[in-house]
Amino acid sequence: MASNELVAVLHFFALCSCFFGMYYVHLNCSPVLCMVYTGCWFMTSGVANFAGFLSILFSFTDSDPNKARSHYALQYHYLFAWISCIVGYPAFVSSTWMAYYPSVAAHAYVALAVIPLIAWLQRQGDLIIFTTQFVTMFSILSHMYISILSENHWCFAGACVMLLNLILVSTPTRYAVLGFSAREAFLISSTVTSYLLAQGVEQMSVKHKESEDVWFFAILMELGTQLFTMKEEDEGDLD
C-alpha cells in the first residue's frame, strides 16, 4: 500500500482531472440535458475524490489511524466512487448516444442505474455486486460500440479503461496491484478515465449542437401532428 502522502497526491490529480472534464463540458456542451448527462461522471467522481482527500487530511490530524480509516469522509469516498460507476458513467454513455444517434432509447442507460440503487437501499450485498457489474459492463460494451461507429477514439479508450475501473471497484481493498491497493489503483485508473472522456467530449461537441436542433424540430413536428389529429377529430364530431 502507498503512503498517505502519495494517496493525497493521487486524489489531487484525480480532482484536477475532474475539473478539467467539467471545464470541457462547460465549453462544448450546449443542450442542457446533454450537459447534465456528460458532466455526471465528472461531478460524482469529483465528489468521491474530494471526500477521499478529506479523509487523508483527517488521518494526518487523528492520533489513532484506525479511527481515520473508518471516518465518515472515507465512507462517502467509497459511496460516490460506486455511484460514479453506476450513474455517472451510464449517463455519459447516454450523452454519447444522444450526440451521434439521438433517440429516446439513449436514456435507457440512465434508467438502468435505478437497479443497483434499489439493491443498495435493500442492503442486499450479492445483488449490489451483480447489478453493479451488469449495468456498468452493459454501458461499457455499448460505449465501445458507439465509439467505434462514430470513430471517437478518445471515448473508446475511456471505455477500455472503464473496464479496469469495474474490476478494481469490485475488488476488495485488501488486495494489491503492483504495490497499490485496489482503492489506490482505482484512483489512478479513474483519473485516466476522466482525462480520456474529457477529450472525447470535444469530439462530441459538434454533434451535441446538431442534436439540439434535431430534438427541437422533432418536438415541434410531434406537437403539430397531435394538433392536426385533434382538429380532424373535432371536425368529424361536428359532421
TrEMBL record:
The chain crosses the membrane at residues 6-25, 32-60, 72-92, 99-121, 127-146, 153-169. It comes from the Eukaryota. Keywords: Membrane, Transmembrane, Transmembrane helix. The keyword Membrane applies. This is Uncharacterized protein.
